[in-house]
What does this fold into?
Amino acid sequence: MMRKLLAFTCGLTMTAVPKVARAVDWEVTGDVASQGYEIVSPWGDVVLGRRRLTSTLGLASYNLQGRDTLPFKATYSVQVRMRVDADFGRANGETAYDPANATRFVPGLQSTPIDMMYGYVEGRNLLGGALEFKVGRQYTTNVLGWWSFDGGMVRVTTPFYFAVEAFGGLEQRGGLPLSTARFESQGVWRGAQDAAFAADSQRYPSFQTAALAPAFGAALESSGPNWIKSRIDYRRVYNTGDAFTGQFAFPNSTAPASGGYEKVSGLRVSSDRVGFSLSAALPDLGVLRGGVVYDLYVAQVSRAFAGVDVHVGKRTTVGLDADYVLPVFDADSIFNWFTHSPSASAMARVATRPTDTLQLSAQAGTKLWLTEGNPASWATGQCAAGGYQTSEQLSLCTRYGVDSTNWYASPNNSLYDFARADENRMNRASADLVANANANYAWLTGKADVRTMVQTGFGDDSTNRGRRAGGTVSVQQAIVPGLFWLGGRVSAYDWHDPLRPDRDATSIGYVVAPELQPLQFGKIRVEWEHESNRLVGQRFRVLGLITMKVAP
It folds into this structure.
């Protein structure tokens, strides 16, 4: 439980952009942030302490071909950005494996991870504007989601109103040099292993040593009328290296060298997806958009969405959105074996700007949780099948679950049969009401913002899955225009869970944030935050920020 939170953050951003005196344009950006906090146990002991220093450095050079650029003439650039996220508060036992102190060790945790966020050479307008390329570490954003890889991408724009992209390389994965795990498929615990941990890695059979992940893909995009865009994307990623296929060792295993743990090795699929997206925009009417992603590995639609915006006059827009998401995982993940169900949402919204200084918006709809089996009656039926008969026994069973010792000991395996009966596993949808409303008002020397939200189930405590609701009010006012501002925020949120009423709480908080700009190229900002609720008591945070921008 977090009882005390103390933090300090300091950021420094510097940007230098030269004027046209040089043939090649260049840019340097960077920031440094430090923070510290502690998580305290209910008995007052510090169970987790952190002292973090995060720094990024970006380098870019444009117009490498020289200053004499003409329309459709080839241009070249180089862009690199690095990030260091050091943590001086980690104990040695957390990052360096010691069999005598293995309880503190966290596999894959690094004290000073260095991440190359991106770094590539780019060429545009080659062959009269028909060819583009990128080589190096790069991001891709499309209907398949955010993704990063090391390799090359080529784009060819044809005279037939479509463009073709093709790429190949290695997916960026955690545990590899200069890499992060944020872009790889979920469901697998990977990272680097030192020699001591590798010799005793069977202690954590679910942890996999990071290995290269070859990837390739292609896209087809329309390049005709600018009011309509469509695109088809395909991407396949492979796993390499060894991976345990079980959590338990078998003495008579065919893999005695690995201590009895069965493994899979060689080239195999990690993810395999194809997606289609479409958008059409008419300035005086509105926007229509949609898309679908099909996961070829699990042979199911993993995402589908559609939306429409309609302009009602010059100041009001109304819209409808629908979204469907099925969780998918890396093909090596054990989560593919377990049941996982999709969720869907349908929302209506309106946004209006009655005056130049006032903006209003609201959104309401429902979110559907699809489950295998009826969550309202599953626990009762399972407990009855397990032999719980009295009202007291049924009440305790439905609240805390079936005793695992009764699973096979139930009469005639009735508990086992109940969980596998088709009539008990039919798909059911449970609905939540979701709504939010926002207002923003600005005046000459300040601004105010109000945000509210609510999400709640339906029915009484026996069928309602709970609720959460709350809102914030933020204000910023210039005390000395151009030099000193004072900002603040007040918030209140409440949540209720019928299954765990002991976790119900209402959280109240406020923030006071003065900001000073003594120089044209620098700002100093301090935030004092205080949050309070009955579960964690009082929490405090102090944040300091220094921002600088230099551009001759």
